[in-house]
Amino acid sequence: MFDRSPMNRRDLLRSAASLAGAAIFSRPLMAASESALMQGKAEHVISIWLGGGMAQTDTFDPKRRGDPRAKRAGSYYDAIETAVPGVRLCEHLRKTAPLMDRVTAVRTVHHDVIDEHAAATNRMHTGRPISGTISYPSIGSIIAHERGSASDEAPPYVLIGYPNVTRGPGFLGAQSGYLYLTDTSRGPAGLSRPPDVGIERQERRARFRAAMRAAAPPTDDQKLKSYDAAIEQSLRFSGPVLNRVFELDREHADLRGRYGGEFGQRCLLSRRLVERGVRFVEVSHNLNFLNGTGWDTHNQGILKQHELIKELDGAVAALITDLEARRLLDKTLIVITTEFGRPPEFDGGGGRGHQGSAFTCVLAGGGLRHRGAWGETDDLAKKIVANPVGVPDFFATICAAVGVDYRANLHDGDRPVPITDQGTPIKELFG
Q1: Residue extents of the structural domains in the chain
Q2: What is the DSSP string of 139-154?
Q3: pLDDT tens digits for 115-147?
Q4: DSSP codes of every residue in 296-309
Q5: What are φ and ψ of residue 398, in 5° steps?
Q6: Which architecture characterizes domain 40-192+245-429 according to CATH?
Q7: CA separation, residue 331 to residues 37, 97, 133, 402, 420 (Å)
Q8: Spatial CA neighbour of 266 closest among 289, 242, 282
Q9: Residue 366 to residue 332: CA distance in whole angstroms
Q10: What's residue 191's pLDDT?
Q11: In this predicted structure, what is the pLDDT of residue 6?
Q12: What distance in Å separates the CA atoms of residue 343 and residue 358, rounded to the nearest whole number?
């Protein structure tokens, strides 16, 4: 028989109320999960990394003019108008300003890592905090894994800069890793044969390796499979077709001049790699410190910060117009990221500290509906006023633009891992 005691009736009513409340509060979540997948038409990503921490107030989110001597918080430079009414930039972004109708400065990116550059760099490459139990893949490796290369003659992911674990494939394995180079005057050293190894000798090595593999018993070891896949990939890309991409002297001198110095040549190379079929290219700007400290502008590092900004300005403007002239801009998403921003206040040496509560990352091209800027910060770019964008949201926007399902799971063995840590794209940039 059923127990009809008052206590059980109260328990029943309480349980019913809890279920009803859960249903009410789950409706927005259900609606969000059932919303249409946002998907762009870009085919490639060129990601420009500004190591050190770009000051948003001195670049893409200028505010009132500050004064380090008077300890008056604010921008270090004057601001100028752009092609988009109401959107202003630092005066040293003069070449990019007329192109801002192809650009969106996302001014409200935020995270909680400000004390350590390495941890913040990891966050801005993997989209997650560092974990002691799982090695997360970078955004470059995620896109390489999901989309592969756009050509059999090109690797899916190239890093122009020094290798680092934060750029790597994590649990996705070596086949989703990067090919890297540090000098644009030559191709990747790992793809060049030693002088004493001719074509015939290399072919003999390949036959010997094939025979060894055929004689070995089958394996289900994923690490061995990943290693073999990486070897096959490197051998496939060591021929003259890909290596010709690194011969920048094939480009017209005027165009090379518009791109500028070593950093600009890296951006030019990224365009050539995209043309060949590379899916994701990261271009590092933290190896060419014109001011002695790069974008890490503590103390005296801020004095020549304008030289870095001008170099970025010229290279990015050249990349946008070059891609556009070749009808590649809508197919190529340009991304500019940094590990965190800078506060509007000046430190004791006249420079700036670290700020993660609000900073700017940039999107350009990629077939998005650009608006010059997205999100709003307060009068000193210290706090977010409207449209905050978490790092997972920014990553979801990148994934959506290049046709990767940002709601899907990757798998670390049997363990499902959301691609973007539950990020949601900036929907206003699509459609």
Answers
A1: 40-192+245-429, 193-237
A2: HHHHHHHHH--SSTTS
A3: 899 999 999 999 999 998 999 999 999 999 999
A4: ---GGGGTTHHHHH
A5: -60, -50
A6: 3-Layer(aba) Sandwich (3.40)
A7: 19, 22, 37, 9, 22
A8: 282
A9: 5
A10: 64
A11: 46
A12: 9
For CA atoms 194, 197, 198, 204, give the dihedral sign.
negative
Tokens of 339: 């590990």
Tens digits of per-residue pLDDT, 15-59?
544 444 444 444 444 444 457 899 999 999 999 999 999 999 999
Return d(Cα 66, Cα 391) in angstroms, integer. Answer: 28
Q: What percent of the chain clears pLDDT 90, i.e. is strictly above it?
A: 72
Closest Cα partner for 385 from 375, 394, 371, 393? 375
Cα–Cα dist 262/258, whole Å:
12
* Structure token digits, residue 155: 């690797």
For the chain, the first-to-last Cα distance in angstroms comes to 60
Tokens coding 40: 């762009």
Structure tokens given for 354: 């670290």
What angle, 0 to 180 degrees and rounded to 10, lies between the N-to-C axes of helices 262-276 and 305-325?
Answer: 30
Helix (H, G, I), strand (E, B) or coil at 280: strand
Q: What is the mean pLDDT of residues 183-190?
A: 77
Model confidence, pTM: 0.85
Does residue 335 contact residue 45 with C-beta atoms inside 8 Å? yes
pLDDT digits (tens, 9 = 90+) for 379-406: 999 999 999 999 999 999 999 999 999 9
Q: Is a pLDDT exceeding 80 seen at residue 223?
A: no
Give how far Cα 280 sits from Cα of 40, 197, 227, 298, Å: 16, 31, 21, 31
- Report d(CA 265, CA 2) in Å as an integer: 80
Report the 3 state secondary structure along 72-140: ECCECCCEEECCCCCCEEECCCCCCHHHHHHEEEEEEEECCCCCCHHHHHHHHHHCCCCCCCCCCCCHH
The token duo for 159 is: 């890093």
Look up tokens 């801005």; give the residue: 124
Check: CB of residue 166 under 8 Å from CB of residue 125: yes
pLDDT (mean) for 5-22: 47
Question: Residue 13: is its pLDDT beyond 90?
Answer: no
DSSP 67: B
Residue 290's Cα: distance from chain center in Å? 23
Bridge partners of residue 373, in order along the sequence: 105
CB atoms < 10 A from the CB of 69, how many? 7
